[in-house]
Structure formats: structure tokens, C-alpha cells
Amino acid sequence: MKRINNSVIVLSLFAGMMYTHAQEKKQLSLDEAVQLGIQNSKSLKIDAAKIEEATADLLEAKNRQLPELKVSASYLYLPLKPNVDIRLPGVSGAGGPEVHQVAFGSANLSVPIYSGGRIKYGIQSAKYLVEASKLSTENDKVAIAYNVAQAYNNLFKANQSIKVLEENLTASQKRDETFLKLENNGVIARNDRLKANLQTSNIELQLLEAKNNYNIANINMDLLLGLPETTEIEVDQNYIDESDDVKPVDFYLNEARENRKDLQALDQQRKAAELGTKSAKAENLPSIAFTGGYVAADIPKFLTIYNAVNVGVGVSYNLSNLWKENSSLKQSKAREMQLSATNELLNDNIKLDVNREYQNSDYSKKRIAVFEKAAVQANENYRITKNKYDNGLATMTELLDADAAQIAANVGVINAKADAALAYRKLLQTTGTLTIK
Question: Going by C-beta distance under 8 Å and a sequence separation of 6 or more, which residues neighbour residue 209?
Fold first, then answer.
């Protein structure tokens, strides 16, 4: 039985060593993580495809101003003798030539001269939509930058919690050893020693939960950054000092008006919609084009035509516009109204977002001072309680409560600083200025 247990222990240690070896450690600053997240974002790949689609629409609009040249040719074989009746003065219609094959070809050229502005409006509208797609991509980059920062922050908090809990667990285990000696020497009661053991077990449970949270946060970061899931990311805590320079709220409101890419994209869409309305009105106008053509035909033993060139001007007008209502115009005007209302709503939401995140950022900074004060108080309280306990003036329960309060306060300081840094980045996101340094 002992050999089996020893074998299990050896295998467990070997498996642990293999797992540790399989994990790759990668140290990343927050800005490096954001850059990786943007490079490997699946959402941005979709955005890139949308830009390509909008660019193709622009190319199609530009093609409408180019000449149209169409060439056609046909060859026909006639297995049965056709009835040919020629009715020309001086030519007999009966018993005409035998025709068994016919070949003819034509080329037609059309160059648009005037289309009521539809081509011009279409090109400019397509340009606005391409720009809107690019701006939407930039807005998505800002959102991805914040999502990566949020995941990075969660990883940092989990890692810091592990460090604090490991330090406290080590201290608690040493205390358990001391209390066991004191119990064996009859200095303290067994009940007091068991209370200390229970405190150690609680810290172990907290440590297990912190490590579980860390592993989940690490896998989330790996997926966001496009890294293998076995990569262990080492965070750089210097980012928690970024929120020091906070300006008045009006500054961030102005920044949002100037830099929000979704607002700029909406503006481009509104310009495109305005041109769509002009293009819809132009449907009631005629189209004029320069036309040219060439025709050649060959019917053996009967008719040959070549060098039949024609040039002219063609006018096209849809007379049904006289009694049909212009539905395209109504749709375009409705689109303009929709985008105008969306613009007003977005402006209101931006004001709300900036003010809310400004308040959250200010609140987060104030929380740091409170937690730091609480940590000083908790550490001093533990020191005093420990001295009292050593002199028999405090109970074991008071000592353990003081120790638990000290742990919570120290973890609270770290989390408050990390949350403040993230709140500042959220504020920058609402202004559209969250970028890679």
C-alpha cells in the first residue's frame, strides 16, 4: 500500500512538472496586450471585410461614368432552304438564291453625358460610406482596447490577491506551528489552537478561489490576444498609476465631440443619405448619352455588309414617372430623418457616458484613499491586538479577527488602485481617445 501511494505521489509530481514545462510564460505591458488584442481581433477582421465591400461599391459607382462598349457576333446555319422573296424594282422575287448560313456582328458604344447627377451623387455617396466603415473600425478598436484593459485588470487583481494570500498563509502556518508548541507545553488551550487552524484553512480556501479566478482570467486573456491557451501572462503593475492626471469634465466632453469615431461615422452616413435624396430626385430627369455603333453581316451568295458605322445622341426618359410617385425619394428622406434622430440620441448618450465615467473615475480615486487609510488602521490594529494577545490581554478570536481584517484591507487597496486605473481607461474610451501609447 505504501509503494502504491509513493508511486501515485511520484506520478503526480511528474505530471505537475510536465504541465509547468508545457506552460509558456509571457510578460506583457498593458499597451502591448492591447496591441496584440487589436491585431488578433475577430471583430476587426469582420470590419475589414465590410470596408472591402464598401470599397467595391465605390468602384461600381465610378464604373457608371465610364463608356459602355458591347460587342456581339452570331453565326446561324440554315438546314432547310428558306423562302426568299425579294421585292425590289427590277428584281424577281421568285427563285432567289439558296441561303444556308448567316453571319453578323455588331459593336455598340455608349458614353454618358447627362444623368441628372445620379452618377456624381452615387460616387460621392459611396465615398462617404467607405469613410464611415473605416471610422466604425476605429471605434471598434477603441472598444477592443478597453476590453483588453478590463481583462488585463482582472488578471492583475487576481494575481495580486494570490500574492497577499500566500504571504498571509505562510504567516498563518508559522503561527499554527508556534501555537502547537504552546499547546504541547500547556501554555494555551487546544480550542485556541484549533481556532488558529480554522483561520489557516479559511485562508487556504480564499487562496484556492483566487488561483481559480486567476486561471480563468488568464485563459480569457489568451483568447483575446490570440495566444495559446497554455500561455501564462505576467502583468506589469505600472499601469495602475495612469489615472493621476484627471482634468475637468468639460475637457472630456469636448474631447468626445471631436474624437468619437462612431459620431464621425454617423456624420458620414448622414452626408451619404443627403446625396441619396438628391440622386432619388434625379430619377425624374432624362438621361442623355453619346452613342456609336458598327454593324457587319454576311449572307453568302445574297448579301454582304461592312463599314456600317453610326454615331448619334440618345435620350432616355421613363414616362411612367409622370404618374408614379417617387418611392426612392420617400425612402431616402425617411433614412435622413432616422439618421438625424440617431445623431441626437448618440450625442445625448455621449454626454451621459462621459459624465457617468467621470464620476466613476473620481469615485474610484477617492476609494483608494479610504482603503489605504483602512489598511493602515487594520495593520496597526493587528499589531496592537497581537501585543495584547502575547501579554494575555486579548483573546484568540480577537487576534484572528484582526488578522482577517488586515488581509481584507490590504487586498482592498490593491483592488481599488486597479479599479481606478480601469475607470480612467473607461473614461478615455467614452471620449474616443483610448489609444496605444
Answer: none
Measured from the Cβ of residue 330, the count of other Cβ atoms closer than 10 Å reads: 12
Residue 414 lies in a domain: yes
Residue 425 contacts residue 146 (beta carbons within 8 Å): yes
26: CB partners within 8 A, 6+ apart: 227, 231, 232, 233, 234
Residue 315 forms part of a structural domain: no
Q: How many structural domains does the chain have?
A: 1
What one-letter code names the amino acid at 151? A
Quote the domain boundaries for residue 337: 40-64+116-284+333-431
Within a 10 A sphere around the Cβ of 320, how many other Cβ atoms?
A: 7
> Kindly report the CA angle at 417 between 413 and 422, in degrees rounded to 5?
145
pLDDT > 70 in the chain, percent: 90
Q: How far apart are CA 406 and CA 378, in angstroms?
A: 5
Burial zone of 95 (CB within 10 Å; 0-12 exposed, 13-18 middle, 19+ buried): exposed
Kindly tell me the number of DSSP H helices and DSSP E strands found in the chain.
9, 6
**pLDDT-based confidence at 397, cuts 50/70/90?**
confident
The burial class, CB within 10 Å (0-12 / 13-18 / 19+), for 97 is: exposed
Instruction: Specify the pTM.
Output: 0.78
**Predicted local confidence at residue 404, as pLDDT:** 82
**CATH code (residue 251):** 1.20.1600.10
Q: Which of 211, 212, 232 is closest to 221 using CA atoms? A: 232
Assess contact for 85 and 95: CB atoms under 8 A: no
Does residue 193 sit within a domain?
yes
Name, in order, each residue with C-beta under 8 angstroms of 288's C-beta and a sequence gap of 6 or more: 112, 113, 114, 115, 313, 314, 315, 316
- Within a domain: residue 14? no
User: Average pLDDT, stretch 357-378?
Assistant: 93
Beta bridge partners of 102: 76
Residue type, 300: P
